[in-house]
Design a protein that fits this description.
6 helices; Elongation Factor Tu (Ef-tu), domain 3; six-stranded antiparallel beta sheet; Rossmann fold; six-stranded parallel beta sheet; single chain; Ubiquitin-like (UB roll); alpha/beta; 346 residues
């Protein structure tokens, strides 16, 4: 089916079918469509139906609360075309860009589930075909047992690989996270769409790096830091990583982060912020430039010594934490919006 999209005075089209969300169909064919989570929670991928018929998908998607359904608005990440459609889309980017790195559908096998804390796991997905992605990007995953896609950032940084590494935190009402925490089988088939996301590491910009992560939001940061270490980027660029968890028992990836800090002791600093535990904490064997403090992570990040004039900030984590960090960086520290990159999964 033909999907005609219009942004202001520019019109283009792409093909879709009844099985694929319109957002996915458009993105893999090079359409410049706005999105953040790509899973129905944020509302960023809203569009307006001018003509045609749609299956609106997930009726309880949180993002539907942020759109004007009675005026024909819908979520492109949820809707599927039932006929040829004309739609209007917001945004300022080019309507079609094409080029390399377009997302696509992949089949994969989820395996190697390992507990990191009481409510955090890491796991791997083996793809049938290799994927090329940039450090900091994410994919959306769907299990046959959970009828929805969920977004997860890769922790590895291989440019082209058939194996993706992830970390996941158990959420009280999270369908995918509840399913994976209950997994007893060694492997399980999953659908994968990606890569997605704009919070990517670009060494050519030659910027110092400020990372502010809450919980499993550290995943994309680890990918960025690993790529920088692999390519010796931190030999002459600085990085300060702020990682927020609740208590000492909730800290994960401390060995990986400590090893990264140990590789570049003069340019990398790691600070762990404990929001629900106060007082001194001593964890043996960590690098000297690995610090543990208390308080909320976005407040701890105020103590960075990086100069904002030559820094790119990356933020990931729960929406309230992301909002707090954005408010601090723009309102308090004076960062310009184009100095901050984040993906808010909602």
């Amino acid at each position: 089916m033909k999907i005609t999209i219009t942004r202001k005075e520019t019109t283009g089209s792409f093909e879709s079918n009844t099985e694929e969300p319109l957002l996915f169909a458009g993105l893999r064919q090079g359409a410049g469509l706005e999105y953040e989570c790509a899973t129905g929670t944020c509302g960023t991928c809203r569009a307006k139906l001018v003509s045609g018929e749609l299956d609106q998908g997930w009726a309880e998607a949180p993002g539907r609360l942020l759109i004007k359904v009675k005026r024909g608005e819908f979520l492109m990440c949820q809707a599927r075309a039932l006929s040829d459609c004309d739609i209007r889309v917001p945004g300022k980017q080019a309507l079609f860009s094409g080029g390399k790195g377009l997302p696509d559908h992949f089949s994969g096998t989820l395996h190697s589930i390992t507990a990191l804390t009481a409510d955090v796991l890491k796991f791997k997905v083996q793809l049938q075909n290799p994927m090329t992605f940039q450090p900091g990007q994410f994919v959306v995953l769907q299990s046959p047992h959970v009828n929805a896609y969920r977004a997860y950032s890769m922790t590895n940084s291989d440019e082209a690989t058939s194996e993706l590494d992830f970390v996941i935190k158990k959420l009280p009402d999270g369908g995918f996270s509840s399913w994976i925490f209950e997994q007893t089988e060694a492997v399980s088939a999953v659908k994968v769409f990606g890569p997605l996301g704009k919070a990517v590491f670009e060494p050519a910009l030659k910027k110092d790096i400020l990372c502010i992560a809450g919980g499993s939001g550290i995943a994309g940061m680890l990918s960025i830091l690993s790529a920088g270490c692999r390519d010796n980027y931190f030999a002459d660029h600085k990085a300060h990583v702020f990682f927020g968890v609740r208590t000492e028992a909730d800290i994960f990836f401390k060995e990986e982060l400590s090893e990264i800090a140990r590789q570049f002791p003069d340019t990398i600093k790691v600070t762990i912020a404990l929001s629900e535990q106060h007082g001194p904490v001593h964890l043996p064997g960590l690098a000297d430039n690995f610090v543990i403090t208390d308080g909320f992570v976005h407040l701890a990040a105020r103590e960075t010594e990086l100069s904002k004039e030559n820094t790119m900030a990356y933020i990931a984590g729960p929406p309230p934490m992301v909002d707090g960090a954005l408010k601090d960086l723009i309102g308090q520290a004076g960062y310009a919006p184009d100095q901050i990159r984040f993906d808010k999964f909602g």
